[in-house]
Amino acid sequence: MKKHLVCVVAALCLVGCASGPDSAKDKAMEKKPKTYHVAKLGKPIQIDANWDKPEWQAVKALTLGGYMGEKPDHRPKVQAKLAYDDQAIYVIFRVEDRYVRAVAKKTNDSVCRDSCVEFFFTPGTDIGLSYFNTEVNCGGTILLGWHPDGKKGVRVDPADCAKIQVGHSLPKIVEPEITKPTTWTLEYRFPFDLIKKYCPKATKPAPGVTWRANLYKCADATSHPHWLTWSYVDFPRPRFHMPQFFGTLVFE
Asked: Suppose 123 and one of 90, 113, 202, 244 were both cysteines; which one would form an S-S bond, judging by CB atoms 3.0 to 4.6 Å apart?
């Protein structure tokens, strides 16, 4: 009996010793910048916010598993997929959410205060920390900013923003807030010509080309705010405009 107890204690000690390093390793992996491989499409996608359409079924999803600030009491499950063709990059989000709200009406309004998904990206490796911030609320209203390296960011002309085709599963305005569990999707096509207009040094997507990027989910002015990230951002409070922490997109 004593021998049996000694064996059990020893086994438990081994488990305990193993869990420490493994946990530390997992934590380190969480902080490691993420990489995502962007699939090449054979033809353009119809922009209709349909997560399940055939063109997206073969594309691997990424998950926004991190958060900024205090751990949120409401943490929606957010997935995204990216793809490209010779003319544009495509992005689709699927959000298993609750406490959903959208009141921004005009292009370049503060959509981050609504239930919002965001795609920040540096379109190439030779343009420093320059980046675009693409922010779209659940109703399809967009804010697009361009931040040339070392200079103050500007909001892109609304006429140019209109060149981005957006599809969304929820109405444009969601008010009052939806408080029951709700899954919503959002999809858009971002033409490369628009990127090139503001960033002439941008590298066009092609096999082997890399960009840097991060994807986010926020809901600043809802009843349950949160700030979720794909690639880890090492900052003590919620702040998405941190291109030094972007992950990597590899075009296939």
From this structure: 202
Contact 46, 189 (CB under 8 A): no
Q: pLDDT tens digits, residue range 82-139?
A: 999 999 999 999 999 999 999 999 999 999 999 999 999 999 999 999 999 999 999 9
34-251 CATH, one of 3.20.20.450, 2.60.40.1190, 3.30.1490.190, 3.20.20.70: 2.60.40.1190
**Amino acid identity for residue 70 in this structure:** E
Q: What is the 3 state secondary structure string of the chain?
A: CHHHHHHHHHHHHHHHHHHHHHHHHHHHHHHCCCEEEEEECCCCCCCCCCCCCHHHHCCCCEECCEECCCCCCCCCEEEEEEEECCCEEEEEEEEEECCEEECCCCCCCCHHHCCEEEEEEECCCCCCCCEEEEEEECCCCEEEEEECCCCCCEECCHHHHCCCEEEECCCCCEEEEECCCEEEEEEEEEEHHHHHHHCCCCCCCCCCCEEEEEEEEECCCCCCCCEEECCCCCCCCCCCCCHHHCEEEEEC
